[in-house]
UniProtKB/TrEMBL annotation:
SUPFAM superfamilies: Composite domain of metallo-dependent hydrolases, Metallo-dependent hydrolases. Pfam families: Amidohydro_1. It comes from Paenibacillus catalpae. It comes from the Bacteria. GO terms for molecular function: hydrolase activity, acting on carbon-nitrogen (but not peptide) bonds, in cyclic amidines. Residues 50-357 form the Amidohydrolase-related domain. This is Cytosine deaminase. The lineage of its organism: Bacteria, Bacillati, Bacillota, Bacilli, Bacillales.
Length: 409
């Protein structure tokens, strides 16, 4: 087996280069005509564009509906009715839970996602059954995707009396403590947040809260989260997901809250919803808040029929929403859906996606097929992927001369 993999003729942010990969890391970014050594394995990318591998900051793998039968949905009048409806509909596809989760994971990988934060439903009715499945999948997919699991009391931590189950989930290996609307769902902001932060502290876990509550209630809830985070010494360990309400209040208030969030290193995950208000990403980013993009919905589910597993598509939606049609702002979207910059350097993990596009803005606009998805130097998905054979997989991938040469769009 080759000790070093050379990928020649890669387009990295407009520059042709050769990547040298050893033991999962980039060890050299060389000239496009870098001469290989005898022991090197070489693959020529013939100008494919490198994008940093994607991270989906908020996704559910236990909520997908099958795509081979239509599950009818009807309008609901409240969030609680929605919770009830979802439970009933999901119970009907219980036997296919693993198959549907695997399908979602494969679709995410094929679109370039190699890191994901997965929220897992837990309540007294389903107990820890979903978590058991997700822990199993996390292990099965460990060589292809880094998965974090959030113990998520979808029906409300206090409202559904899920605390003992969540405690058990954290003991079993969930990575984060989840929650939902301490005011709107649990009807007791202080007690709900106190319980969340106490459990997180007890098990040394991070926190990620679903916040759908509107306007000033959302602002107040985040202020309280900031207080609890500071009190518990959890700076940098707390995420607020959605926070739709921040799109409904005065921008001065959001900027002020944003600087407090930045001070406590509280980050925000948004799925760029089009059917509700959304947090003002440019303003929060300018205030120093770390933003991450998320799919949340990956296909048909009880909340929307319009989900999609491709995080790049969410990035494009964000750019469309803010009418970012210049190179600089289009390219800026990538910082919110990956860990790396558009350029990898020696010492970085070899986690990247290769696409047929001219540059990052082109990729955002065209959403080209992901030709290869690479994690720790090994191809793990993509249209050229030949299956799981570790580092040697490179040898089986055809040269570009064998493919159609047009750009996808
Ligand atoms: Zn969610």
């Amino acid at each position: 087996m080759a000790e070093r993999q050379l990928i020649q003729q890669i387009n990295m942010n407009g520059r042709a280069c050769t990547l040298v990969i050893e033991k999962g890391c980039i060890t050299e970014v060389g000239a496009p005509d870098l001469i290989p050594e005898a022991r090197d394995s070489v693959w020529n990318a013939h100008g494919l564009l490198l994008l940093p591998a994607f991270r989906d900051a908020h996704v559910h793998l236990d909520k997908a509906f099958p795509s081979d039968r239509w599950i009818s949905r009807t309008p609901v009048s409240s969030l609680f009715e929605q919770f009830k409806l979802e439970k009933e509909l999901l119970a009907g596809c219980k036997d296919r839970r693993k198959e549907l989760a695997v399908k979602t994971l494969e679709a995410m990988l094929a679109s370039g996602t190699t890191e994901a934060r997965v929220h897992v439903d837990i309540d007294p009715d389903i107990g820890l059954s979903h978590l058991e499945l997700m822990l199993q999948l996390k292990e099965e997919y460990a060589s292809r995707m880094t998965i974090e699991l959030v113990a998520f009391p979808q029906q409300g931590l206090l409202r559904s009396q899920s605390t003992p189950y969540i405690r058990e989930a954290l003991r079993m290996g969930a990575d984060l403590m989840g929650g939902v609307d301490p005011a709107g769902v649990d009807r007791h902001i202080e007690l709900s947040l106190e319980t969340m932060f106490e459990l997180a502290t007890e098990f040394d876990k991070r926190v990620d809260l679903h916040l759908h509550d509107p306007g000033h209630l959302a602002v107040y809830t985040i202020e309280k989260m900031l207080d609890y985070s500071a009190e518990a010494g959890m700076k940098g360990k707390v995420t607020v997901s959605h926070a739709y309400g921040l799109g409904e209040v005065d921008s001065g208030l959001v900027a002020e809250l944003g600087s407090r969030m930045a001070g406590e290193a509280m980050d925000l995950a948004t799925s760029v919803p089009f059917d509700t208000a959304m947090p003002p990403v440019p303003l929060l980013a300018a205030s120093g808040v770390k933003i991450s993009l998320a799919t949340d919905h990956t296909g048909l589910d009880a909340w929307t029929p319009y989900g999609h597993p491709d995080i790049l598509r969410r990035g494009r939606l964000l750019a469309e929403k803010y009418i970012w049609n210049d190179d600089l702002r289009m390219a800026s979207v990538f910082q919110w859906m990956s860990r790396g910059s558009l350029e990898l350097k020696a010492g970085d993990a070899a986690d990247f996606v290769l696409v047929k596009a001219l540059n990052a803005p082109h990729a955002l606009a065209a959403l080209p097929r992901r030709q290869l998805v690479i994690r720790e130097g090994i191809p793990v998905a993509g249209s050229l992927w030949q299956g799981n054979s570790g580092f040697a997989a490179w040898r089986n991938i055809p040269e570009r001369s064998e493919w159609a040469d047009e750009y996808d769009r």
